[in-house]
Design goal:
- Helix content is 41%, strand content 23%.
- With 126 residues, the protein is α/β, with parallel strands linked by helices.
- The protein has a single domain (2-125), classed as Glutaredoxin.
- The protein has a 4-stranded mixed sheet with strand order 3-2-5-6. A two-stranded parallel sheet has the order 1-4.
- A hairpin with a 5-residue loop joins strand 5 and strand 6 (101-106).
- The longest helix is centred in the first third of the chain and has 14 residues, at 2-15.
Amino acid sequence: MRTLFGVFLLAIAAWGAPLLTDADFLAAQQKGKITLYLYTAVGCPECRYMKQKVFHDPAIAPLLARDFVVVERDVNIDTLIDGFDYFGIPTLFLVAPDGTLIEKVVGSRKAPLFAPILRNAQKVLR
């Protein structure tokens, strides 16, 4: 019974963590950058498309490098952020340095449709 309870507590701990104590968020915050959480999973073709094609597109890569810290979280393995629920993958959360959720994007996007999302998010830095 004690072992079962311990496993239950571990499962709860692995599910969510407060944003303001997340090391990746704090690192982006110190740099004055937007945290882009990418919720993904092994074998997700849309996630792979975003990571391999869209994030490396010439119109996207400079935007990401300048103002964003991309944090990939596997929904089956990694600790996710409390309150950042997802319905499907990929799900992207763009979080301002003050911890405000700027935008939540569900599903993949081609670069021409993703660039305006990033540019809109950049407005919080100006």
